[in-house]
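Retro notes - structure team

What went well: the batch runner handled both jobs without manual restarts.
What didn't: labels got mixed up in the shared folder, which is why I'm recording both outputs here explicitly, each with its sequence directly above its tokens.

Job 1
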Amino acid sequence: MNRKYVYFTLDIAFFLLFMTLVVLILTGNLMIAVVEGTSMEPLFQTGDVVFVVKVKPSEIRPGDIIVYEKPNGAYIIHRVVKVKHENGETIIITKGDNNKYYDPPIRMKQVVGKVLSVYNMPVKLPFLGLISLWVKSIINY
């Protein structure tokens, strides 16, 4: 096979993947999050970048990794331990993989989305977010 043809095909594939990501981000169906803290170690390290997709309540299952917003506005990336339905409302129990205790129960309206996984392995870009965390620390200083 011609080497130029292979490179051209790879260029087209990466371009299409990039454009798909851009469209999903612009439509609000995909977000990018930077991991901060040790609660999900060893799976995620501070500075890892993850992709977060919007989901319906029926698509969240134990074992999924979700991003949710705490009442104080902080975003948390933790694993779903249990999903309950009470009085017509979905209640989710989460826990960081590296934490001893469960988080307080959250409601579906707090869920931002689910971390994108392929064959049950979360998609992450290791340490790519360290620059944004560094800039954030300077701004907050």
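Job 2
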Amino acid sequence: MGWEAGFVNLAAFSARLSRNERGVATIELSLMVGFLSLAMLNTVEIAKFYFQKMEVENATQMGAQAAWKTCDTTKLPATTNCSGLTTAITTAISSTSLGNAVTLQTGFPQEGYYCLNTSNTLVYASNVSSKPANCSATGQATLQPGDYIKIQTQYSYSPIFPGFTIGSLLPTSITSTSMMRLQ
């Protein structure tokens, strides 16, 4: 008869427990805070990534503008006749909040002659060692080719909360390319 009384007490306790609603709000709140915290951490991660991407794009554009400012038309083609070109570009791309972490990609700057085709799309015409007389190769014989410089930079992104947020799914390398007409 002892085990039967224990079973009855357990059944009564179980029935009382199922009707007790104290603490439910605390459990719900803790679950919501957890989900909201995870959402907030993901928001911070994504905001950091896009801010740094914007900074890399800005640095790349500043590098192209530095090339244009440093190498006037008497020093063209710039990659062969402008001695301060690489220094000016490197200084410019390091001037954002990311500093020296933004680097000039190997093989850049690149310079060449470009023409517009009949669809008004910029098309590579030749390298700087042989300037074409006109843009006849692209169907625009009345146009003169323009001297353009291309800058490409790279930045290594590292997530704030790796493995915990979607930051691990974002690209670890941010690259940006900018072109500017020198003449």
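One thing worth noting from job 2: The two ends are 104 Å apart (CA to CA).
We'll revisit the folder naming next retro.
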